[in-house]
Specification:
heterodimer; A: 569 residues; alpha+beta; five-stranded antiparallel sheet; 19 helices; B: 488 residues; mainly alpha; two-stranded antiparallel ribbon; 2 strands; 74% helix
């Protein structure tokens, strides 16, 4: 898609009666795949006039947003990515201001930014620049001016970039439509024009937005604006990203490899043997003929040749793997030779799955279990840092190599926040994980979070320690409401109470009661948590109601018998 | 190929394969346990020819709707629970049949036992869960072929077993044996298998209710092709109504017709609902396929599997009546017919892979037409051995045809393989019901000619309308390099 087809643009900026122009603005329409993953950015900043370095401030903001935003991970949401960039910029600007003694010499600017990704528009706003949306003849101001009026003719800017370490950014999102026109203006423009004038000038010059921008800015000057005037107009001709046909084309671009057997060569990889084959995929051990490196080749099963949801998941697996660099996550090997088939290559982990390890270690040492858990958690944190949720953590998806290094494999089910934002005709499958390790929120259809991964890890640690599952084998969507946590101490009486409590907290059915962070769980597995020990002395009635009532009944029988005996003797 | 099927193994997926084909074998054994004993039953209950043909008909009637119901249930409850239930329930129903005292009870039991015939789909799903694509075809061939052999086991063993028990109730004990086997194996199956390999998920497919078609013309064809499935049930009602056997009153028949019509309209509504998208936009290219391909495969399976169902039901009686053979000899001779399944069905699949889809179907259907035409000429003067040989040739082509149909099913649209297979399967049962209905009016010879005639029609359709599925195949060069070549 050509940038000119995608949007029409009009820009005009003038210093007006001032000595210099402290406004900065810009629009970026990137190439694919950034266009799909990140979208279009339009930004306008008005350097605060009270500061010497207003121009520097506004330019910095615009440049960092247009540059750094596109360097954030593709898996991040727009909100997270833009906020991270703006907060970093704000911190830098504030730091610059602090170096000079005169606070008036600091860097400060307003900022209004629009991101259009897929079919959604995102607004980020600080200060009194404005973004309008013109849809048909309907002009809506999408931003609120951060200004306070102290008297009839005096007002102050209440929020701006660079004046405080703390930064509050207005954020909201809305559905965009092809044909939407966005108008970004500085206060020098919109304070000297009625909204109707903007609508009128834009509507009249839809074919020449540069002229529209110029006329609007000039009109403001004519009306006596004493400030810099900048107007930037963007018309969205089409929505960015791949259309449906293009998406399916991309999914079916490469053919499925045939059945492979030892000795066959595929794009420079020589197959050594088949490691595993399931209904969904085949996994082969192969050697890279250029480097001699042993690698694993994963190919999709012909069962899913025309299943776009499966293809999408398969392709994202490589996508996810190539964006994670962590010792505890399977490394995806970058493909240097041209690819003629659909498959992907990853490092070969010579070892066994955690399932196999559990089989060999039915009564594992607590230290060993901590060691393994800690490594899984570190791998998972790498996912979470990238705003990804693994969603299918289970002993079969965890490998332990001969050095004892634990690695998470298989990311086919990973939920990627940044990808979820891209509208897609594909209905992604909801239940992805394996029943026993799947948090109740999936089964019940509630939204998932990183706490869902913590649940899975909790179940795994429980199973490694006890050989059983915390809610029993019958755990499924029908029974989840009725199931109760079975104390791990039932299976392993010697297990410290506080570890049992930590496990219980990790696998709480209500996600809100679970650990919020993996690190807390890991900490509680090694260090007795005071809170868990405090209520140990609780009465038998709450700790084990059944035993209490049984005991009471037996006691009552004995007393009764004594009483009866008393009557007779 | 790095790993061939290791049929002697009894661990992991092979254990599943063996336990599952045996479950299917037993279900088929129960489903057709009446056929070889029909001679005795006819005598005990003093049944007319019409009543015998009704029993044979009822046995395959319920299977048609049951396939649809079981197909949905297997998505929800998984193959393990479903196959167990089917076997246990059919054990009970079969006891009911064995102990029946009146023709009405026999008929009701046989009607309900039609449900057993739907076990096939359950096992297909089970095999699909456990075997990777590369092995799925052969595994399902073994499952289907060896399982179908169950009717042969019934035909060969039950008459002897009945005789061994002796007395006037010997046949009842023989039937009770199959009931007990089914019941106990159902319980065993529940504890012996799991729905998926450990650690993998049993995916519930999206709720569909109907197949997706990709053009308006195909939608119309789909609606037309859905009708015979319900039409076959209408045929049965007509047979039992005052117009035929006068089993129930005209009012009851009307209500039943209305019910079937309502179900058809509901199905039609679902079909349009699922496919309403094609009216507003074009279907992406990767999803497009021609529905006529499915329609032809459905009709082909109507002939191949329909004739098999019909012949398995009627051959023992045919041999007895035509050549005055004892039930045991007739049973053994008739039992030779389903034995062909062991190799003819997989053979049809292999032939299809080797010489092409269209060509293999053409050859096999020519064989079907010719052999049934010959069978239509049989008189009591023919040597028994020749007649048995001709039926075996019929079986060879028909079952080979079934194999060739199912070799092509996954090539229409991978995504919808299950649904395409389900529809073809339903047509197989429609065929059984239609052919048996025909048999209730005419002599066996004419019945064979009718099958041959329908086969000839389908042969013409195959020649004129069936397209060879296109696709890409890979080529392995001498040094092992894999390359793609397009197949026109």
């Amino acid at each position: 898609m050509n940038a000119n087809e995608l949007i029409s643009l009009g820009q005009y900026s003038d210093r007006g009666t001032k000595e210099d122009n402290q406004d900065s603005y810009g629009v970026l329409v990137p190439e694919e795949p950034a266009l799909s993953h990140k979208g279009i950015v339009a930004v306008l900043a008005d350097g605060v006039s009270g500061c010497d370095a207003g121009k520097v401030a506004s330019e910095t903001c615009v440049a960092s947003l247009l540059g750094d935003y596109y360097c954030t991970p593709d898996s991040w949401t727009v909100k997270n990515a833009v906020e991270k960039v703006l907060l970093a910029t704000n911190r830098w600007m504030y730091g610059q201001g602090q170096q000079g003694l005169d606070p008036r010499k600091g860097l400060a600017t307003t900022l209004s930014a629009l991101v259009v990704k897929s079919s959604t528009g995102y607004i980020f706003h600080v200060g009194d620049t404005r973004i309008y949306r013109l849809r048909g003849t309907d002009l809506v101001q999408l931003t609120n001016d951060h200004r306070v009026w102290v008297s009839e003719d005096k007002n102050y800017l209440t929020r701006a970039m660079g004046i405080e370490l703390r930064l509050d950014i207005d954020y909201h999102k809305f559905v965009v439509e092809p044909g939407d026109i966005f108008i970004l203006t500085t206060d020098g423009v919109h304070e000297y024009l009625p909204d109707a004038a903007i609508t009128e000038r834009v509507s009249r010059n839809v074919d020449n937005l540069d002229r529209a921008a110029r006329e609007i800015a000039r009109l403001a000057l004519t009306n006596g604006s004493p400030d810099n005037v900048t107007c930037q107009i963007i018309r969205l001709n089409q929505l960015p990203g791949l259309g449906e046909e293009a998406l399916y084309k991309k999914l079916t671009e490469l053919p499925f490899p045939p059945e492979l057997s030892a000795g066959m060569k595929l794009d420079g990889y020589r197959i050594l043997r088949e490691l595993h084959a399931s209904k969904r995929t085949q996994v082969y051990l192969a050697v890279d003929e250029d480097t001699g490196e042993q690698v694993v080749l994963k190919t999709p099963s012909v069962n899913y040749e025309d299943d776009p949801v499966f293809l999408d998941m398969f392709m994202h697996e490589e996508w996810v793997g190539s964006r994670l660099t962590n010792n505890h996550v399977l490394r995806v090997v970058e493909q240097r030779r041209p690819r003629h088939f659909l498959y992907y290559v990853s490092e070969y982990v010579d070892g066994q799955t955690l399932r196999g390890w559990m089989h060999d270690h039915p009564e594992p040492d607590l230290t060993e279990v901590r060691e393994i858990t800690d490594q899984i958690a570190r791998g998972l944190m790498a996912f979470h840092k990238m705003e990804m949720i693994h969603q299918d953590l289970k002993p079969e998806n965890i490998m332990i190599d001969d050095q004892g290094t634990v690695k998470i494999i298989d990311f086919g089910s990973t939920k990627i926040a940044g990808i979820e934002e891209i509208a897609s005709p594909l209905q992604r499958l909801t239940l992805l994980g394996t029943k026993n390790y799947t948090a109740p929120e999936y089964l019940l259809g509630y939204p998932c979070s990183i706490r869902s991964d913590i649940f899975a890890l909790g179940v795994i640690v429980y199973e490694v320690l006890t050989g059983h599952l915390p809610y029993g084998e019958k755990y499924d969507e029908g029974s989840v409401q009725k199931m109760d946590y079975i104390s791990a101490r039932r299976w392993v009486p010697g297990l410290p109470v506080w570890i049992d409590r930590a496990l219980e907290k990790a696998v709480k059915k209500n996600a809100d009661w679970r650990y919020g962070e993996l690190s807390e769980f890991i900490h509680d597995l090694s260090n007795p948590n005071e809170a868990f020990l405090r209520d140990l002395d609780e009465p038998l009635l709450t700790r084990d109601p059944l035993a209490f009532w049984q005991g009471l009944a037996i006691l009552s029988v004995i007393i009764n018998m004594l009483l009866i005996a008393n009557i007779f003797f | 190929m790095s790993e061939k099927l290791q049929l002697l193994s009894f661990t992991g997926k092979y254990r599943i394969l063996h336990t599952t084909w045996l479950a299917f074998f037993i279900s088929f054994m129960v489903w057709f346990n009446h056929a070889p004993l029909m001679v005795i039953i006819r005598e005990v209950f003093a049944l007319s020819d019409q009543e015998v043909s009704v029993l044979l008909l009822l046995n395959v009637a319920l299977t048609i709707p049951a396939r649809i119901v079981v197909g949905m249930l297997v998505d929800t409850y998984g193959p393990r629970r479903l196959f167990s239930s089917i076997l246990v329930v059919s054990g009970v129903l079969c006891s009911f049949f064995a102990l029946a005292q009146t023709f009405q009870q026999l008929a009701l039991a046989r009607f309900l036992l039609g449900f057993v015939g739907a076990g096939f789909v359950v096992g297909i799903r089970m095999i699909g869960e456990w075997f990777p694509a590369r092995q799925a075809g052969s595994a399902q061939g073994i499952y289907g072929g060896w399982g179908n052999f169950g009717s042969a086991a019934s035909a060969m063993l039950l008459p002897s077993l009945a005789l061994w028990f002796g007395g006037e109730n010997g046949w009842r004990y023989a039937l009770l044996c199959t009931a007990a086997i089914s019941f106990l194996y159902g319980i065993y199956y529940f504890f012996a298998v799991t729905d998926t390999p450990k650690g993998s998920t049993y995916f519930k497919p999206k709720k569909m209710g109907a197949m997706e078609v990709t053009s308006k013309g195909d939608l119309a064809l789909y609606l037309v092709m859905s009708a015979p499935i319900y039409g076959a049930l209408g045929l049965l009602i007509w047979k039992l109504s005052p117009a035929g056997m006068n089993w129930f009153s005209g009012q009851v028949a009307l209500v039943a017709y209305a019910g079937i019509l309502a179900i058809y309209f509901y199905q039609a509504y679902k079909i349009i609902e699922v496919n309403k998208g094609i009216f507003s936009q074009q279907v992406p290219e990767m999803f497009r396929y021609r529905f006529k391909q499915i329609a032809i495969l459905d009709l082909a399976y109507l002939v191949t599997f329909g004739s098999e169902l019909a012949l398995v039901s009627m051959l023992p009686l045919f041999y007895t009546d035509t050549f005055k053979l004892s039930p045991i000899v007739a049973g053994v001779l008739a039992g030779a017919y389903p034995v062909m399944n062991l190799f003819a069905r997989p053979g049809g699949g292999v032939l299809s892979d080797r010489i092409g889809r269209k060509r293999s179907l053409t050859i096999l259907f020519a064989g079907i037409v010719l052999s049934f035409m010959v069978l239509g000429q049989v008189t009591a003067d023919w040597a028994v051995a020749v007649v048995v040989f001709v039926t075996l040739v019929c079986g060879l082509f028909a079952k080979g045809g079934s194999g060739a149909v199912f070799a092509m099913v996954p090539l229409i649209s991978r995504r919808m393989t299950g649904q395409v297979a389900g529809m073809a399967g339903a047509y197989g049962n429609v065929g059984g019901l239609v052919f048996l209905t025909v048999l209730s009016f005419v002599a066996p010879q004419t019945f064979f000619l009718v099958i041959g005639g329908v086969g000839a029609l389908v042969l013409v359709l195959i020649l004129v309308f069936l397209d060879e599925p296109r696709g890409q195949t890979a080529e392995v060069l001498e040094d092992g390099t894999v390359q793609m070549i397009d197949v026109a």
